[in-house]
Specification:
5-stranded parallel sheet; 3 domains; oxidoreductase activity; binds flavin-adenine dinucleotide; 23% helix; oxidoreductase; FAD/NAD-bd_sf; cytoplasm; NAD; globular; Enolase-like, domain 1; FAD/NAD(P)-binding domain; alpha/beta
Length: 386
């Protein structure tokens, strides 16, 4: 009989792995442990829920109980793993010690706020990185009982998607960040500015090139001060200034990890025997993609490995589809920085090709009607992890 499998984390990585292992092995004991509610949900849908006015329960495909029942697994929700004792092969959960056979760490990534926030701002300043966060923000919006003024800090994928979604849900949105255009890590500047034009036309307020230097409660309002002295009043603030892999558990246990994540090889094996990692917390052969397709490829490879068929993961040239219906965006950022961007534009319909010295396609970015070209271009681009 195979050793019992214990998975820390019930995001798409943890639950995806349990599901895949179960299809390959119907009897192996599997335990999933999660600090959150352990509901089974798709994280990318969080930034589409406000336009459709979806209450949180509509975003959960199944509860932790239903999940346990469906997969014949043990699910321990609202249970934080405090530490991993690699020598004893045990997890420490408060006063309890839980033995493991094979351990998989799928603890995801955590939002990084730009500065520490005073307790007086609790209930007014948020980040949304899981379904529990969505529940809390949704409740704050509902309690206003009217369209809200929302300031979003951060011009990346999460900030832009929530900006578009909350705007579509009838709220007034201000978007603030230090870069000169939207989606700075995914788009060359002209395309980021085109997305900005679409947001401006829709009535959003954009503050490019600006840092938020202070946030204060002011009566019922929250006041944000920008580095040029401008003040912005809001009902609620959403922080979307990036995510960092949650590596603390691994680091404290002596597992090789760094700011890029827990370091694993292509078998998703960490530096410690019988411990694997995948999803947003894992840096696979030096790459931490933090997107769904690499995560799903990792799930398949690791499930095969854990059921007796050692399999290396590979990532294809998978573009990211940004959910900004005001101007659709697709991006496959080049892995190497030594590229020249060649941009063709017809209004806001833009194609940007990142080429190396020999003219070989290394990545691309598309907006508007040009997003149709994603499949054709991806065929010519190099794999993320070949
Ligand atoms: P998580 O979902 O973060 O799960 C981590 C789990 O670990 C949680 O269950 C947590 O409770 C648990 N945990 C952490 N620490 C402990 C502990 N000490 N003890 C017990 N449990 C613990 N990607 C795309 O490809 N396309 C998209 O369109 C897209 N849209 C997105 C939209 C938003 C708003 C966000 C935030 C992300 C989006 N992404 C998208 C990224 C994608 O959703 C993530 O890459 C993916 O969901 C990460 O899953 P995960 O399981 O690795 O981590």
């Amino acid at each position: 009989m195979q050793a019992p499998l214990t998975i820390i984390g019930t995001g798409m990585a943890g639950i995806g792995l349990a599901r895949q292992v179960r299809t390959l092995d119907s009897s192996r004991p599997i335990t999933l442990i999660s600090a959150d509610s352990a509901d089974d949900y798709s994280k990318p849908l969080l930034s589409t829920g406000f336009a459709k006015r979806l209450p949180p329960h509509k975003l959960a495909a199944r509860s932790a109980l239903e999940l346990a029942d469906q997969l014949s697994v043990v699910v321990r929700s609202s249970t934080r793993v405090d530490s991993i004792d690699c020598a004893a092969h045990e997890l420490v959960l408060g006063p309890e010690r839980l033995p493991y056979g094979n351990l998989v760490i799928a603890t995801g990534a955590v939002p990084v706020p730009p500065f520490s926030l005073s307790e007086q701002l609790a209930g007014r300043v948020f980040s949304i990185n899981d379904l529990d966060d969505y529940r809390i923000f949704h409740a704050a919006l509902e309690s206003l009982g009217r369209p809200a003024r929302i300031a979003i800090i951060g011009l990346g994928l999460v900030g832009c998607e929530f900006a578009n979604d909350l705007h579509a849900g009838g709220h007034s949105v201000s978007l603030i960040g230090p870069e000169r255009a939207l989606l700075p890590r995914l788009l060359p500047e002209p395309l980021g500015l085109a997305l900005g034009q679409a947001f401006l036309r829709a009535g959003m307020h954009l503050h490019y090139g600006r840092l938020v230097t202070a946030i204060h409660p002011a009566g019922e309002d929250v006041d944000l001060t920008l580095d040029d002295g401008e003040g912005i009043g809001a009902d609620l603030v959403l922080i979307a200034t990036g995510l960092r892999p949650r590596v603390e558990l691994a680091e404290a246990a002596g597992i090789d990890a760094g700011p890029d994540g827990i370091r694993v090889n292509r078998y998703l094996a960490t530096s410690v025997e019988n411990i694997h990692a995948l999803g947003d917390v894992a840096s696979v052969d030096g790459i931490n993609a933090m997107y769904v397709q690499p995560l799903q490829a990792s799930v398949k490879a690791l499930a095969a490995t854990l059921t007796g068929n050692p399999t290396q993961v590979r990532y294809g040239p998978w573009p990211v589809l940004v959910k900004t219906p005001l101007l659709p965006v697709v991006s496959l950022p080049p892995i190497h920085e030594q590229v020249t961007w060649r941009i063709e534009a017809d209004g806001e319909d833009m194609t940007a090709l990142a080429e190396d010295e020999s003219g070989q396609l290394q990545g691309f970015a598309l907006t508007g009607r040009c997003v149709r070209r994603k499949v054709e271009l991806a065929r010519s681009a190099p794999p993320l992890l070949g």
